[in-house]
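Protein modeling request. Please complete all fields; requests missing the sequence field cannot be processed.
Requester role: graduate student
Desired output: 3D structure, C-alpha coordinate encoding
Chains: 1
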Amino acid sequence: MKIIIVGAGEVGFHIAGRLAAENKDVVVIDPKPEALRRVLDLLDVQVLEGSGSSPAVLEEAGVKSAEILLAVADSDEINLASCLFADILSPATRKLARIRDMDYSELAQSLQKDRPHIDAIINPEQEMVRTIDRLLSVPGALDVAEFADGRVKLAGIRVEPLSPMAGVKLSGIARVAGTRKILVAAIVRGEELIIPTGRDTILAGDVVYLAEEADQLLAAISVFGISREKVRRAMIVGGGRSGVALAGLLVSKGIHTKLIEKNAAKAAKIAACLEHVVVLNGDGSDHQLLSEENVADMDVIITLSGDEETNILTALVAKRMGAKTAITRIDKFGYLSMMPALGLDLVVSARLSAINTILHLVRRGMVLSSIALKGERAEVLEAVALETSDIVGRPIKDLDFPRGALIITILRNGQVIIPSGDSVIEPGDHIIILSTRKAVPKVEKALAVKLEFF
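Delivered output (454 residues):
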Protein backbone atom coordinates (compact mmCIF):
# COMPACT_ATOMS: atom_id res chain seq x y z
CA MET A 1 0.00 0.00 0.00
CA LYS A 2 1.38 3.39 -1.02
CA ILE A 3 0.41 6.37 1.14
CA ILE A 4 1.35 10.02 0.57
CA ILE A 5 1.38 12.25 3.64
CA VAL A 6 1.25 16.02 3.12
CA GLY A 7 2.77 17.67 6.19
CA ALA A 8 5.67 16.57 8.41
CA GLY A 9 4.44 18.14 11.65
CA GLU A 10 3.65 16.13 14.79
CA VAL A 11 0.57 14.48 13.29
CA GLY A 12 2.22 13.67 9.96
CA PHE A 13 5.38 12.44 11.66
CA HIS A 14 3.59 10.08 14.04
CA ILE A 15 1.30 8.67 11.37
CA ALA A 16 4.28 8.11 9.06
CA GLY A 17 6.09 6.28 11.86
CA ARG A 18 3.16 4.00 12.58
CA LEU A 19 2.62 3.14 8.92
CA ALA A 20 6.33 2.68 8.18
CA ALA A 21 6.55 0.17 11.05
CA GLU A 22 3.94 -1.87 9.17
CA ASN A 23 6.03 -1.87 6.00
CA LYS A 24 3.76 0.54 4.14
CA ASP A 25 5.23 2.52 1.24
CA VAL A 26 5.13 6.05 2.68
CA VAL A 27 6.09 9.36 1.07
CA VAL A 28 6.11 12.52 3.21
CA ILE A 29 5.85 15.95 1.55
CA ASP A 30 6.80 19.17 3.34
CA PRO A 31 8.39 22.48 2.29
CA LYS A 32 10.54 22.72 5.45
CA PRO A 33 13.95 20.96 5.15
CA GLU A 34 14.36 20.70 8.95
CA ALA A 35 11.04 18.87 9.31
CA LEU A 36 12.00 16.42 6.57
CA ARG A 37 15.44 15.91 8.12
CA ARG A 38 13.78 14.74 11.33
CA VAL A 39 11.63 12.30 9.33
CA LEU A 40 14.65 10.95 7.44
CA ASP A 41 16.74 10.56 10.58
CA LEU A 42 14.10 8.64 12.53
CA LEU A 43 11.80 6.89 10.06
CA ASP A 44 12.17 4.50 7.15
CA VAL A 45 10.12 6.52 4.64
CA GLN A 46 10.66 8.60 1.52
CA VAL A 47 10.55 12.40 1.70
CA LEU A 48 9.97 15.09 -0.88
CA GLU A 49 10.65 18.79 -0.31
CA GLY A 50 7.88 21.01 -1.65
CA SER A 51 4.27 21.96 -1.17
CA GLY A 52 1.55 19.32 -1.18
CA SER A 53 -0.67 21.85 -2.94
CA SER A 54 1.58 21.72 -6.03
CA PRO A 55 0.35 19.38 -8.79
CA ALA A 56 3.95 18.86 -9.92
CA VAL A 57 5.06 17.82 -6.44
CA LEU A 58 2.11 15.42 -6.11
CA GLU A 59 2.97 13.83 -9.45
CA GLU A 60 6.61 13.49 -8.40
CA ALA A 61 5.48 11.82 -5.18
CA GLY A 62 3.57 9.24 -7.24
CA VAL A 63 0.01 10.25 -6.46
CA LYS A 64 -1.30 8.27 -9.45
CA SER A 65 -0.17 5.03 -7.85
CA ALA A 66 -1.09 5.96 -4.27
CA GLU A 67 -4.03 4.33 -2.52
CA ILE A 68 -4.35 7.12 0.03
CA LEU A 69 -3.44 10.80 0.32
CA LEU A 70 -3.32 12.13 3.90
CA ALA A 71 -3.41 15.92 3.97
CA VAL A 72 -2.30 16.93 7.48
CA ALA A 73 -0.30 20.11 6.87
CA ASP A 74 -0.61 22.98 9.35
CA SER A 75 -2.70 24.96 6.82
CA ASP A 76 -6.30 23.98 6.04
CA GLU A 77 -5.95 25.70 2.67
CA ILE A 78 -2.94 23.58 1.72
CA ASN A 79 -4.80 20.44 2.78
CA LEU A 80 -7.83 21.38 0.68
CA ALA A 81 -5.69 22.28 -2.34
CA SER A 82 -3.73 19.02 -1.99
CA CYS A 83 -6.97 17.04 -2.11
CA LEU A 84 -8.27 19.09 -5.05
CA PHE A 85 -5.23 18.48 -7.24
CA ALA A 86 -4.97 14.85 -6.13
CA ASP A 87 -8.59 14.43 -7.22
CA ILE A 88 -7.77 15.84 -10.64
CA LEU A 89 -4.58 13.81 -11.09
CA SER A 90 -5.79 10.55 -9.54
CA PRO A 91 -9.55 10.30 -8.86
CA ALA A 92 -9.20 6.74 -7.50
CA THR A 93 -6.87 7.81 -4.67
CA ARG A 94 -8.67 8.05 -1.32
CA LYS A 95 -8.26 11.48 0.24
CA LEU A 96 -8.30 12.18 3.98
CA ALA A 97 -7.87 15.76 5.20
CA ARG A 98 -7.32 17.34 8.59
CA ILE A 99 -9.43 20.50 8.67
CA ARG A 100 -9.42 22.63 11.81
CA ASP A 101 -11.50 25.66 10.78
CA MET A 102 -15.14 25.06 11.66
CA ASP A 103 -16.23 27.12 8.62
CA TYR A 104 -14.76 24.40 6.39
CA SER A 105 -15.99 21.58 8.61
CA GLU A 106 -19.56 22.78 8.22
CA LEU A 107 -19.17 22.24 4.46
CA ALA A 108 -17.98 18.66 4.97
CA GLN A 109 -20.83 17.06 3.01
CA SER A 110 -20.25 19.32 0.02
CA LEU A 111 -16.49 18.73 0.10
CA GLN A 112 -17.12 14.98 0.12
CA LYS A 113 -19.87 14.93 -2.51
CA ASP A 114 -18.36 17.47 -4.91
CA ARG A 115 -14.79 18.22 -5.91
CA PRO A 116 -12.31 17.71 -4.28
CA HIS A 117 -14.28 14.57 -3.23
CA ILE A 118 -12.58 14.23 0.17
CA ASP A 119 -13.37 10.79 1.57
CA ALA A 120 -13.05 11.89 5.20
CA ILE A 121 -12.58 15.21 6.96
CA ILE A 122 -10.99 15.06 10.41
CA ASN A 123 -11.42 17.98 12.79
CA PRO A 124 -9.02 17.47 15.74
CA GLU A 125 -11.13 19.52 18.14
CA GLN A 126 -14.25 17.50 17.34
CA GLU A 127 -12.35 14.22 17.69
CA MET A 128 -11.05 15.31 21.09
CA VAL A 129 -14.58 16.17 22.24
CA ARG A 130 -15.67 12.66 21.19
CA THR A 131 -12.78 11.22 23.20
CA ILE A 132 -13.88 13.16 26.29
CA ASP A 133 -17.47 12.04 25.77
CA ARG A 134 -16.36 8.40 25.72
CA LEU A 135 -14.40 8.89 28.95
CA LEU A 136 -17.37 10.50 30.69
CA SER A 137 -19.63 7.65 29.58
CA VAL A 138 -17.61 5.22 31.74
CA PRO A 139 -17.00 6.83 35.16
CA GLY A 140 -13.79 5.56 36.72
CA ALA A 141 -12.15 4.56 33.41
CA LEU A 142 -8.76 5.90 32.35
CA ASP A 143 -9.16 4.93 28.68
CA VAL A 144 -12.20 4.00 26.62
CA ALA A 145 -12.25 2.68 23.06
CA GLU A 146 -15.22 1.53 21.01
CA PHE A 147 -15.48 -1.20 18.38
CA ALA A 148 -18.15 -2.96 16.34
CA ASP A 149 -20.07 0.29 15.79
CA GLY A 150 -20.04 1.06 19.51
CA ARG A 151 -21.48 -2.30 20.62
CA VAL A 152 -18.19 -3.35 22.23
CA LYS A 153 -16.13 -1.18 24.58
CA LEU A 154 -12.61 -1.61 25.85
CA ALA A 155 -12.02 0.31 29.09
CA GLY A 156 -8.88 0.70 31.18
CA ILE A 157 -9.25 0.97 34.97
CA ARG A 158 -6.68 1.20 37.72
CA VAL A 159 -6.74 -1.61 40.33
CA GLU A 160 -6.68 -0.04 43.78
CA PRO A 161 -5.01 -1.80 46.76
CA LEU A 162 -8.40 -2.54 48.36
CA SER A 163 -9.96 -3.83 45.14
CA PRO A 164 -11.45 -7.33 45.51
CA MET A 165 -9.55 -8.23 42.33
CA ALA A 166 -6.10 -7.28 43.64
CA GLY A 167 -4.03 -10.45 43.94
CA VAL A 168 -6.52 -12.58 41.98
CA LYS A 169 -5.31 -14.95 39.26
CA LEU A 170 -7.19 -14.66 35.99
CA SER A 171 -7.97 -18.36 36.13
CA GLY A 172 -9.80 -17.73 39.40
CA ILE A 173 -11.55 -14.53 38.44
CA ALA A 174 -14.97 -16.23 38.35
CA ARG A 175 -14.66 -16.90 42.09
CA VAL A 176 -14.73 -13.15 42.76
CA ALA A 177 -16.97 -12.09 39.88
CA GLY A 178 -19.62 -14.72 40.60
CA THR A 179 -21.87 -15.42 37.63
CA ARG A 180 -20.55 -12.44 35.67
CA LYS A 181 -18.08 -13.30 32.91
CA ILE A 182 -15.11 -10.90 32.98
CA LEU A 183 -12.60 -10.73 30.12
CA VAL A 184 -9.32 -9.01 30.94
CA ALA A 185 -7.98 -8.13 27.50
CA ALA A 186 -4.74 -6.47 28.61
CA ILE A 187 -2.79 -5.46 31.69
CA VAL A 188 -0.45 -2.48 31.83
CA ARG A 189 2.08 -2.82 34.64
CA GLY A 190 4.52 0.05 34.78
CA GLU A 191 5.91 0.30 31.26
CA GLU A 192 4.97 -3.30 30.37
CA LEU A 193 1.96 -4.29 28.29
CA ILE A 194 0.74 -7.83 29.01
CA ILE A 195 -1.72 -9.81 26.91
CA PRO A 196 -2.66 -12.09 29.79
CA THR A 197 -3.29 -15.80 30.18
CA GLY A 198 -5.09 -17.60 33.00
CA ARG A 199 -1.77 -17.88 34.86
CA ASP A 200 -1.34 -14.09 35.20
CA THR A 201 -2.27 -12.36 38.45
CA ILE A 202 -3.90 -8.92 38.77
CA LEU A 203 -1.85 -6.70 41.07
CA ALA A 204 -2.70 -3.47 42.86
CA GLY A 205 -1.57 -0.56 40.70
CA ASP A 206 -2.17 -2.40 37.42
CA VAL A 207 -4.19 -0.72 34.70
CA VAL A 208 -6.55 -3.47 33.55
CA TYR A 209 -8.38 -3.31 30.22
CA LEU A 210 -11.80 -4.96 30.17
CA ALA A 211 -13.63 -5.93 26.97
CA GLU A 212 -17.37 -5.88 27.41
CA GLU A 213 -20.67 -5.27 25.67
CA ALA A 214 -21.33 -1.53 25.91
CA ASP A 215 -24.37 -1.70 28.18
CA GLN A 216 -22.69 -4.22 30.50
CA LEU A 217 -19.39 -2.42 31.00
CA LEU A 218 -20.28 -0.47 34.15
CA ALA A 219 -21.44 -3.66 35.85
CA ALA A 220 -18.15 -5.38 34.95
CA ILE A 221 -16.14 -2.46 36.32
CA SER A 222 -18.08 -2.57 39.59
CA VAL A 223 -16.63 -6.05 40.24
CA PHE A 224 -13.27 -4.29 40.71
CA GLY A 225 -14.74 -2.14 43.47
CA ILE A 226 -15.25 0.92 41.25
CA SER A 227 -18.75 2.31 41.57
CA ARG A 228 -18.72 5.96 40.61
CA GLU A 229 -21.96 7.69 39.78
CA LYS A 230 -22.65 9.14 36.38
CA VAL A 231 -21.47 12.69 35.76
CA ARG A 232 -24.10 15.26 36.74
CA ARG A 233 -21.99 18.38 37.32
CA ALA A 234 -19.08 19.48 35.12
CA MET A 235 -16.78 22.47 34.94
CA ILE A 236 -14.90 23.38 31.75
CA VAL A 237 -11.91 25.72 31.77
CA GLY A 238 -11.27 27.31 28.38
CA GLY A 239 -13.78 28.75 25.95
CA GLY A 240 -12.11 27.73 22.71
CA ARG A 241 -13.84 25.68 20.01
CA SER A 242 -13.50 22.43 21.90
CA GLY A 243 -14.67 23.94 25.19
CA VAL A 244 -17.78 25.45 23.60
CA ALA A 245 -18.56 22.26 21.66
CA LEU A 246 -18.14 20.11 24.77
CA ALA A 247 -20.31 22.44 26.88
CA GLY A 248 -23.11 22.21 24.33
CA LEU A 249 -22.83 18.41 24.26
CA LEU A 250 -22.86 18.04 28.05
CA VAL A 251 -25.90 20.31 28.45
CA SER A 252 -27.75 18.30 25.80
CA LYS A 253 -27.20 15.25 28.02
CA GLY A 254 -28.67 16.94 31.06
CA ILE A 255 -25.33 17.64 32.77
CA HIS A 256 -25.19 20.91 34.75
CA THR A 257 -22.24 22.69 33.14
CA LYS A 258 -20.11 25.69 34.04
CA LEU A 259 -17.55 27.17 31.65
CA ILE A 260 -14.74 29.55 32.68
CA GLU A 261 -13.19 31.82 30.03
CA LYS A 262 -10.46 34.36 30.74
CA ASN A 263 -11.30 36.76 27.90
CA ALA A 264 -14.30 38.93 28.85
CA ALA A 265 -15.52 39.58 25.31
CA LYS A 266 -15.22 35.91 24.43
CA ALA A 267 -17.05 34.88 27.60
CA ALA A 268 -19.93 37.24 26.77
CA LYS A 269 -20.18 35.83 23.26
CA ILE A 270 -20.23 32.25 24.57
CA ALA A 271 -22.91 33.13 27.13
CA ALA A 272 -25.10 34.49 24.35
CA CYS A 273 -24.69 31.27 22.33
CA LEU A 274 -25.03 28.74 25.18
CA GLU A 275 -27.97 29.90 27.22
CA HIS A 276 -28.15 26.80 29.42
CA VAL A 277 -24.44 26.94 30.34
CA VAL A 278 -23.21 29.03 33.28
CA VAL A 279 -20.43 31.07 31.67
CA LEU A 280 -17.93 32.79 33.99
CA ASN A 281 -15.27 35.34 33.11
CA GLY A 282 -12.10 34.63 35.04
CA ASP A 283 -8.87 32.67 35.42
CA GLY A 284 -9.61 28.96 35.77
CA SER A 285 -6.47 28.44 37.85
CA ASP A 286 -7.56 31.07 40.41
CA HIS A 287 -8.01 29.29 43.74
CA GLN A 288 -10.57 31.81 44.96
CA LEU A 289 -12.70 31.55 41.80
CA LEU A 290 -12.69 27.77 41.95
CA SER A 291 -13.72 27.91 45.62
CA GLU A 292 -16.52 30.38 44.93
CA GLU A 293 -17.85 28.16 42.15
CA ASN A 294 -17.80 25.08 44.40
CA VAL A 295 -15.27 23.06 42.43
CA ALA A 296 -15.34 20.47 45.25
CA ASP A 297 -18.91 19.62 44.24
CA MET A 298 -17.97 18.96 40.64
CA ASP A 299 -17.98 15.41 39.32
CA VAL A 300 -15.39 16.44 36.74
CA ILE A 301 -13.31 19.45 35.77
CA ILE A 302 -12.04 19.53 32.18
CA THR A 303 -9.18 21.91 31.39
CA LEU A 304 -9.16 22.78 27.69
CA SER A 305 -7.32 26.08 27.43
CA GLY A 306 -4.66 26.54 24.76
CA ASP A 307 -1.89 26.59 27.37
CA GLU A 308 -0.72 23.20 28.66
CA GLU A 309 0.90 24.58 31.81
CA THR A 310 -2.34 26.34 32.77
CA ASN A 311 -4.32 23.14 32.11
CA ILE A 312 -2.00 21.11 34.32
CA LEU A 313 -1.96 23.66 37.15
CA THR A 314 -5.75 24.10 37.09
CA ALA A 315 -6.37 20.35 37.13
CA LEU A 316 -3.98 19.85 40.07
CA VAL A 317 -5.51 22.73 42.06
CA ALA A 318 -9.07 21.51 41.36
CA LYS A 319 -8.29 17.95 42.43
CA ARG A 320 -6.63 19.18 45.61
CA MET A 321 -9.73 21.24 46.34
CA GLY A 322 -11.95 18.18 46.05
CA ALA A 323 -13.02 17.80 42.41
CA LYS A 324 -13.68 14.08 41.89
CA THR A 325 -12.08 13.81 38.45
CA ALA A 326 -9.91 15.99 36.23
CA ILE A 327 -9.45 15.63 32.47
CA THR A 328 -6.48 17.60 31.16
CA ARG A 329 -5.75 18.70 27.61
CA ILE A 330 -2.12 18.18 26.61
CA ASP A 331 -0.97 18.58 23.00
CA LYS A 332 2.81 18.38 23.46
CA PHE A 333 3.59 14.69 23.13
CA GLY A 334 6.63 15.09 25.37
CA TYR A 335 4.38 15.94 28.31
CA LEU A 336 2.05 12.94 28.01
CA SER A 337 4.28 10.39 29.75
CA MET A 338 4.82 12.77 32.69
CA MET A 339 1.16 13.18 33.63
CA PRO A 340 0.62 9.97 35.69
CA ALA A 341 3.54 10.99 37.94
CA LEU A 342 1.65 14.22 38.66
CA GLY A 343 -1.52 12.31 39.48
CA LEU A 344 -3.25 13.25 36.23
CA ASP A 345 -4.28 9.97 34.60
CA LEU A 346 -7.04 11.36 32.37
CA VAL A 347 -5.33 13.22 29.56
CA VAL A 348 -6.70 14.14 26.14
CA SER A 349 -4.98 15.56 23.08
CA ALA A 350 -6.47 17.00 19.91
CA ARG A 351 -3.46 15.77 17.96
CA LEU A 352 -3.60 12.25 19.39
CA SER A 353 -7.35 12.04 18.83
CA ALA A 354 -6.83 13.08 15.20
CA ILE A 355 -4.03 10.53 14.75
CA ASN A 356 -6.16 7.68 16.09
CA THR A 357 -9.09 8.66 13.86
CA ILE A 358 -6.88 8.94 10.78
CA LEU A 359 -5.28 5.55 11.42
CA HIS A 360 -8.74 4.05 11.84
CA LEU A 361 -9.71 5.44 8.43
CA VAL A 362 -6.45 4.38 6.76
CA ARG A 363 -6.97 0.85 8.00
CA ARG A 364 -10.54 0.53 6.79
CA GLY A 365 -10.71 -3.14 6.10
CA MET A 366 -8.47 -5.60 7.94
CA VAL A 367 -7.49 -3.43 10.91
CA LEU A 368 -10.44 -1.54 12.29
CA SER A 369 -8.68 0.57 14.86
CA SER A 370 -5.47 1.33 16.65
CA ILE A 371 -5.33 2.02 20.35
CA ALA A 372 -2.51 3.19 22.58
CA LEU A 373 -2.39 1.39 25.91
CA LYS A 374 -0.36 3.63 28.20
CA GLY A 375 2.50 4.16 25.78
CA GLU A 376 2.42 0.68 24.27
CA ARG A 377 0.55 0.16 21.03
CA ALA A 378 -1.99 -2.52 20.28
CA GLU A 379 -4.11 -3.22 17.26
CA VAL A 380 -7.68 -4.41 17.06
CA LEU A 381 -8.61 -6.54 14.07
CA GLU A 382 -11.98 -7.81 12.97
CA ALA A 383 -12.56 -10.77 10.69
CA VAL A 384 -15.24 -13.23 9.61
CA ALA A 385 -14.67 -16.98 10.01
CA LEU A 386 -15.31 -19.15 6.98
CA GLU A 387 -16.87 -22.60 7.18
CA THR A 388 -13.60 -24.14 5.96
CA SER A 389 -11.49 -22.32 8.54
CA ASP A 390 -9.45 -24.36 11.02
CA ILE A 391 -10.56 -22.06 13.84
CA VAL A 392 -14.20 -23.11 13.40
CA GLY A 393 -15.61 -25.81 15.61
CA ARG A 394 -12.81 -25.88 18.18
CA PRO A 395 -12.59 -24.25 21.62
CA ILE A 396 -10.52 -21.08 21.61
CA LYS A 397 -8.14 -22.59 24.20
CA ASP A 398 -7.17 -25.26 21.65
CA LEU A 399 -6.36 -22.82 18.81
CA ASP A 400 -2.75 -22.27 17.73
CA PHE A 401 -2.83 -18.50 18.21
CA PRO A 402 0.26 -16.23 18.30
CA ARG A 403 1.62 -15.13 21.67
CA GLY A 404 0.62 -11.55 22.38
CA ALA A 405 -2.82 -11.85 20.75
CA LEU A 406 -6.24 -12.51 22.23
CA ILE A 407 -9.75 -13.01 20.84
CA ILE A 408 -11.77 -10.53 22.88
CA THR A 409 -15.20 -10.62 21.24
CA ILE A 410 -17.34 -12.81 19.00
CA LEU A 411 -20.21 -11.19 17.09
CA ARG A 412 -22.86 -13.74 16.09
CA ASN A 413 -26.15 -12.78 14.43
CA GLY A 414 -26.05 -9.36 16.05
CA GLN A 415 -25.24 -10.79 19.49
CA VAL A 416 -22.06 -9.80 21.34
CA ILE A 417 -20.33 -12.75 23.01
CA ILE A 418 -17.46 -12.22 25.44
CA PRO A 419 -15.60 -15.51 25.01
CA SER A 420 -13.92 -17.86 27.43
CA GLY A 421 -11.38 -20.55 26.61
CA ASP A 422 -14.26 -22.98 26.05
CA SER A 423 -16.07 -20.76 23.53
CA VAL A 424 -16.34 -22.21 20.03
CA ILE A 425 -16.23 -20.07 16.87
CA GLU A 426 -18.92 -20.87 14.32
CA PRO A 427 -18.95 -20.25 10.55
CA GLY A 428 -19.88 -16.66 9.78
CA ASP A 429 -18.88 -15.34 13.21
CA HIS A 430 -17.18 -11.96 13.29
CA ILE A 431 -14.27 -12.03 15.70
CA ILE A 432 -12.40 -9.10 17.25
CA ILE A 433 -8.75 -9.70 18.11
CA LEU A 434 -6.52 -7.60 20.37
CA SER A 435 -2.84 -7.91 19.57
CA THR A 436 0.35 -6.14 20.51
CA ARG A 437 1.70 -4.28 17.53
CA LYS A 438 4.74 -6.56 17.54
CA ALA A 439 2.49 -9.60 17.17
CA VAL A 440 0.26 -8.16 14.42
CA PRO A 441 2.33 -9.55 11.50
CA LYS A 442 2.17 -13.03 13.08
CA VAL A 443 -1.58 -12.69 13.57
CA GLU A 444 -2.03 -11.64 9.95
CA LYS A 445 0.14 -14.54 8.78
CA ALA A 446 -1.66 -17.03 10.99
CA LEU A 447 -5.04 -15.88 9.72
CA ALA A 448 -4.12 -15.25 6.09
CA VAL A 449 -5.61 -18.50 4.76
CA LYS A 450 -8.00 -19.06 7.63
CA LEU A 451 -10.20 -15.96 7.46
CA GLU A 452 -11.67 -13.44 5.09
CA PHE A 453 -11.11 -9.90 6.30
CA PHE A 454 -13.50 -7.07 5.57
